[in-house]
């Protein structure tokens, strides 16, 4: 899984809108706060609108605001909707599995599956509200356990 600039800018836009929840923000204001060009931001906000994360208001006082509350915006869902599967390799993907001719007896697939599960575990349990309230805890190396059978 690689988060592209589109995914990062979408999350930054959601954060800005979450910081100004209930307030209509112009695309210019969002652009200034995210440092994303208006042209690129228009495309991203259109996708976020189609995915029902934001809504737009027309007119002189128009702009964008969150459509869902921050506690209902799950970061894993946003990334999956914009970027595709969370798995680093197609053979380990649950949602978009791609077979591999070396898969039978592959010693790497368990590693890719663990990476996928770890990424999904973190992103599926993180909401926009968690980010807004700085509730993300950095994990130390000893927090990770590899289970052996």
From TrEMBL:
Keyword terms: DNA-binding
Organism the protein comes from: Mesobacillus foraminis
Protein name: BadM/Rrf2 family transcriptional regulator
UniProt keyword Transmembrane present: no
Gene3D superfamilies given in the database record: Winged helix-like DNA-binding domain superfamily/Winged helix DNA-binding domain
GO cellular component labels: cytosol
Transmembrane spans: none
Keyword check for DNA-binding: yes
Molecular function as annotated in GO: DNA binding; DNA-binding transcription factor activity
